[in-house]
């Protein structure tokens, strides 16, 4: 089963600011790994409210995502460097 990958508006904005090679690396990681088996390639973070978030590491960047089982979708919520991406998650 192939999972659909979606971006929030803020994640899409963050993605557009990245360099071309970083965008390519993130895109390839999402297609080759996350869209095939999202739970095997990430780490589950502590729950934020009732939402369970997952973290994926691509180079020096972190992707914070929500896995929506009922929609077979992985929603990318935040993209950023490690020191900044975890701020304001709650």
Structure description:
By secondary structure, this protein is α+β, with helices and mostly antiparallel strands. The protein has a single domain, classed as RelE-like (YaeB-like fold, 2-Layer Sandwich). Helices cover 34% and strands 32% of the residues. It is built from four helices and five strands. Strands 1-5-4-3-2 form a five-stranded mixed β-sheet. Strand 4 and strand 5 form a beta hairpin. The radius of gyration is 12 Å and the shape is globular. Belongs to the RelE toxin family. Keywords: Toxin-antitoxin system. It comes from Rickettsia felis str. Pedreira. This is Addiction module toxin, RelE/StbE family protein. It holds the Pfam family ParE_toxin.
Outline the biggest β-sheet: 5 strands, mixed
Q: Which architecture would the CATH scheme give at its second level?
A: 2-Layer Sandwich
SSE order? EHHHEEEEH
Radius of gyration: 12 Å
The CATH class:
Alpha Beta
How do the strands line up in the largest sheet?
A: 1-5-4-3-2
**In total, how many domains does the architecture comprise?**
1
Q: Give the CATH superfamily.
A: RelE-like
pLDDT below 50 for ≥5 consecutive residues: which ranges?
none
What does the average pLDDT come to? 93
The SS-based structural class is alpha+beta
- Helix content range: 25-40%
DSSP strand count: 5
Beta-strand residue fraction: 25-35%
Family: Belongs to the RelE toxin family.
Protein name: Addiction module toxin, RelE/StbE family protein
Keywords: Toxin-antitoxin system
InterPro entries: RelE/ParE_toxin, RelE/ParE_toxin_dom_sf
């Amino acid at each position: 089963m192939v999972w659909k990958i979606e971006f929030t508006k803020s994640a899409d904005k963050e993605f557009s600011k990245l360099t071309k090679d970083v965008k390519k690396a993130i895109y390839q990681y999402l297609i080759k790994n996350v869209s095939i088996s999202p739970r095997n390639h990430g780490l589950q973070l502590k729950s934020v409210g009732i939402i369970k978030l997952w973290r994926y590491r691509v180079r020096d960047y972190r992707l914070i995502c929500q896995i929506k089982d009922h929609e077979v979708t992985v929603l990318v919520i935040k993209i950023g460097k490690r020191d900044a991406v975890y701020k304001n998650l709650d």
